[in-house]
Amino acid sequence: SENADYRCDDFVVNDTKLGLVQKVREHLQNLENSAFTSDRHRKRKLLENSSLNSKLLKVNGSTTTLCATGLRNLGNTCFMNAILQSLSNIQQFCCYFKELPAVELRNGKTAGRRTYHTRSQGDNNVSLVEEFRKTLCALWQGNQTAFSPESLFYVVWKIMPNFRGYQQQDAHEFMRYLLDHLHLELQGGFNGVPRSVILQENSNLSASNKCCINGASTVVTAIFGGILQNEVNCLICGTESRKFDPFLDLSLDIPSQFRNKRTKNQESGPMCTLRDCLRSFTDLEELDETELYMCHKCKKKQKSTKKFWIQKLPKVLCLHLKRFHWTAYLRNKVDTYVEFPLRGLDMKCYLLEPENSGPESCLYDLVAVVVHHGSGVGSGHYTAYAAHEGRWFHFNDSTVTLTDEETVGKAKAYILFYVERQAKPGAEKL
Ligand SMILES: [Zn+2]
């Protein structure tokens, strides 16, 4: 059924561009000079050549026009595509990048974008921000049914070598790397990036943003940044210690009592809801013997309890459901359906000081969902649902289809993106 419908490898596009992409990957892997990865690469290439014809047929099959633009799969890159499509539908975030001047303008040169690549630091003479901007600009333009994000992926593979391989990767891990690197580069963490230009243009961003990670604030922390209060109590002397942890997303366990349930309609017992996952995240937890806490009063490691509160909610709340779990030798997938609201997720009861928040600022509406189809983390396929101007779309690599709320609600979500509902529309705009 669902698992059989989506196989990542079916969607690899074998056009002239793929040759280029393979050259890029080959080049990078030669640089790496790793016997292990190149061996895997060779095997993969053999497989690809043998199934070339079937793939071509698939690609020319059902596609929809609309104004939406798909993203080509460049060989198990659906985990990146699903994240990019989700982010591209988070308007505040996406608009920030689209409004950035193109790099040649930022450089004050008109000689073309190539000049930019000469600007820095050995191997890192590339700009993730610029390639991310170009990709976001290409989406939703309506003049292409699918965009090939090879120049973005080139930068991703260069600065995040762990995503270079041809095997399926974890979309959540990729999202964290992507956001962290965008944040770093926007701060001027790399040589030569004109930090001042970027921060000045968005002066109202820094004002609204109090949760900075690694120093300065950027659009990444302004949109996704929240703050957790981590409260630990020593079970021996009762001493309480609190610390504040900034976060860009929350990783939630699917409570163990729900882990064996498979489908939405499977009876026996209540259905797992997002609220169950949030509650288990914020519930008081007794840490076990393997996680002893260094109590400063007892001056030794003690048993303790831990509790999370949300001290500050973000503008965009990103919730990651921990579907992949390590057992002794394997990483297993928890395939439980988790019911989630499309509108009005109320976060008030998880707040440290709910009385300090406005009447509506704790309500969130769903804007995108990343779904993993298949059974293992190293296999399967990622797609995304996202809302654009009131309509829901399903993004499956190069194919984009119009869908509806009912279908979205049935998805076995892996990552959920919720946008804070504004009390007065337009009152606080980024
Ligand atoms: Zn103690």
Automatic annotation (TrEMBL):
Every copy of the USP domain together lies at 69-421
Which top-level group of life is the source organism from? Eukaryota
**Mind listing the GO molecular function terms for this protein?**
cysteine-type deubiquitinase activity
- Enumerate the catalysed reactions: Thiol-dependent hydrolysis of ester, thioester, amide, peptide and isopeptide bonds formed by the C-terminal Gly of ubiquitin (a 76-residue protein attached to proteins as an intracellular targeting signal)
In short, the EC number is: 3.4.19.12
Gene Ontology CC terms, in alphabetical order: nucleus
The cross-references to InterPro entries, in alphabetical order and at most eight, read:
Papain-like_cys_pep_sf, Peptidase_C19_UCH, Ub_carboxyl-term_hydrolase, USP, USP_CS
Its keywords, alphabetically, are: Hydrolase, Protease, Thiol protease, Ubl conjugation pathway
- BP terms from Gene Ontology: protein deubiquitination; proteolysis
**PANTHER family linked:** UBIQUITIN CARBOXYL-TERMINAL HYDROLASE (PTHR21646), UBIQUITIN CARBOXYL-TERMINAL HYDROLASE 3 (PTHR21646:SF19)
For this chain, the family text in UniProt reads: Belongs to the peptidase C19 family.
What is the name attached to this protein's record? Ubiquitin carboxyl-terminal hydrolase
- Give the species this sequence originates from: Cyanistes caeruleus (Eurasian blue tit)
Q: Which gene is transcribed and translated to give this protein?
A: USP3
